[in-house]
Amino acid sequence: MREQPGMVFRNRNYSIQALVSLITANYIVFALLVQMCVSCTGIHWFLWVGLAGLAWYNYYTIRRNLEEFEEKRTQIIYLASIAGMGILYYLLGVVALHCDLVKPV
What we know:
- It is a single chain.
- The protein is elongated, with a radius of gyration of 19 Å.
- By secondary structure, the chain is an all-alpha fold.
- The protein has four helices and no strands.
- The chain has helices spanning 7-12, 16-37, 46-64, 72-95.
- It has a domain at 30-95.
- The mean pLDDT is 85.
- The chain crosses the membrane at residues 16-36, 42-60, 76-97.
- Keywords: Membrane, Transmembrane, Transmembrane helix.
C-alpha cells in the first residue's frame, strides 16, 4: 500500500511536537513546585494543588492529541518522563536541601 506524498513526513514525526511540549511543561512546572513547596520541615499543601493542576493539564493535552499518544513508543517515553520527575523530586527536594534528618545523640 502506497502512502500519499504528504503523509511521509507526518508519519515520521507523528507525535514529537505534542510529546515534547507536554514533557517540557511537566518538568518546568514540577521543578518550580518542588523548589517553592518543599522544605526540611515538610511539604506545603500547594504542592498537591499544583500537581492536581498538572495532572489535569496532562489529561487535557492527551485527550486533545489522542491519536498522537496512541503510539506505543510515545507512551513509553511519556511514562519514562513521569519516572524522571520522581528522580527530579529526589534531587531537588531531598539532596539539594542538605537537611539533617538524623539528629546526633
